Amino acid sequence: MSKKSDLKFMSGNEACAEGALYAGLTFFAGYPITPSSEIAEYLSAQLPKRGGVFIQMEDEIASMGAVIGASLTGAKSMTATSGPGFSLKQEHIGFACIAEVPCVVVNVQRGGPSTGFPTGPSQSDVMQARWGTHGDHPVIAVSPTTVEECFTEVVRAFNLAEKYRNPVIFLMDEIIGHMREKVRIPEPGELEILSRPRPTVPPEKYKPYDESFGDIPPMAAYGEGYRFHVTGLNHDETGFPTNNGKIIQRTEERLLRKIEANKEDIIKVVDMYADDSPEVVVITFGATVRSARAAVRTLRDTGVKAALLALYTVWPFPETQVREVTEKAKLVVVPELNLGQLIYEVERCASADAKVVGVNKINTEPITPVEIINKVKEEL
Amino acid sequence: MAFDYEYYLRQDKMPHIWCPGCGLGVMLKSMLRAVHGMGWKKDDVVVVSGIGCTGRIPGYVDFNTLHTTHGRALTFAIGIKMVKPHLNVIVVGGDGDMLAIGGNHFIHAARRNVDITAIVYNNEIYGMTGGQVSPTTPHGWRTTTTPYGNLEPRMDIVEIAMGAGATFVARSTVYHTGQLEDYIKKAFEHKGFSVVEVLGHCHTGLGRRNKRPSAVQNFQWEKTVAIPLKAMEKLPPEKREGKIPMGIFRDDKEKVEYTEIYKELMKKAAG
Ligand SMILES: Cc1ncc(C[n+]2csc(CCOP(=O)(O)OP(=O)(O)O)c2C)c(N)n1
Ligand code: SF4
Question: Does any CB of chain A come closer than 8 Å to the CB of residue B13?
Answer without folding.
Answer: yes
